[in-house]
Write a structure and sequence with these properties.
Largest sheet: 5 strands, mixed
Order of helices and strands: EEHEHEE
Radius of gyration: 14 Å
Helix content: 10-25%
Number of strands: 5
Shape: globular
Strand content: 15-25%
Number of helices: 2
Strand order of the largest sheet: 2-1-5-3-4
Distance between the termini: 19 Å
Structural class: alpha+beta
Amino acid sequence: GGVNPYIRPVNPEKPSRPFQVTFHLEETGEVKTVTVRPEDIPYADHGLEGSVLDIAEGAGVEISHSCGGVCACSTCHVYVTAGGTSCPAATDDEEDMLDEAPAVTADSRLSCQCVPNGTQDLTVVVPRWNRNQVKETPH
């Protein structure tokens, strides 16, 4: 397709009140809960404004993102196990990238594209294999 992956889609709905995101890091067993305040968005300008990746980066939670958060790889794949309905559905571009990710489930999202609107708290599982994973593409 002739779609430019670097053009950001229209920004999703912004949260109107604080909400919490709880990150479960499979690799270390660490659990970190972050309170997201709408006025603090964006945090780190990684991925879409207010995305799970942006929130994680702002909180010091490491989620690898080889492409820099522009939906051009699948390294920031996470599982949103609670509150996912407060995020817009995955775009076709995100779905295409998730097809490249390992161990995809119904809860799978690219954290750079998943932008919660703040109506629910989120639980995000960062899979063990996410950290600094390098994926070779066969040629």
